[in-house]
Amino acid sequence: MILSDKYIEQQAALNKIIIKGFDSNNLKGASYELTASENYFDLTENPSKKLTAKNEDGKKILIKPLHKVVLITQEHLDIPSNILGRVVTKGSLFSIGLSAVNTIADPGFKGQLGLVLYNYSSKYIVLDIGEKVAKIDFSQLMEDSRSYSGQHGFSAQTWPVPTHLQYEYNDVKDHVRMKPSPLEEAYSVLPFEISNLLKVLKAGITALQIALVILVFVNLATVILLFMDKIDNISAAIFINVVSTIVASVFTFFYKYFISK
């Protein structure tokens, strides 16, 4: 049986289920909208470093493009042994590219929830402290269940990340699904727009290096001819200028019409 908004409010008044941070305005039918506290973690940058929004400009939570974060809720829960909480994504946030990983609050859970969210958009997403970030509904079980025995919310001031499951390229390079080089692997895992930009930049750098080598040899040959009195200073200057202009023009044309396409 899913608990109604009235029942959730009654239990909160008795200091049950949602024991701290409860706001009746966040009740929506048979669910409650959870809000972000000032504490969060950026799993993409440094999962062990707690970030505090109140120390940042404008007291905002910043979620960078393609980053995973854990938002710690303002609400403190105390789930009875016969109640199960289910956390789901808010549609309004999903529409701008922010998706919460659906999870559950087991019977016996106590403390603040950590909500894993992923910004799959190309935009920076900025949230206020107190922003509604997910929904939770509660179901009553047929009988008391075995109580939750893991980390109770944010009590440890850390977020448990199973880093033993994470590896670098060199650790898994022999796997059948891996590309033969780190660069090719990067192209395959990065978004198309980013990998394509990297390819363009790499090709441009290669072309520029070739152009610089040509100019070095031209200047070297000119210096040798000057020492051998084969040409005068004016002719050398004109020769270097003409060759430099030709090389620059060829490089610009090649980059514009071939590399950047």
UniProtKB/TrEMBL annotation:
Q: Which InterPro entries match?
A: dCTP_deaminase (IPR011962), dUTPase-like_sf (IPR036157), dUTPase_trimeric (IPR033704)
Query: What are the TM regions of this chain, as residue ranges?
Result: 205-228, 234-255
| GO process terms (BP) | dUTP biosynthetic process
Matching Pfam families, A to Z?
Answer: DCD
Provide any one GO MF term from the record.
dCTP deaminase activity
Kindly give the SUPFAM superfamilies that the UniProt entry links to this protein: dUTPase-like
Keywords from the named record: Hydrolase, Membrane, Nucleotide metabolism, Transmembrane, Transmembrane helix
Protein name per the record: Uncharacterized protein
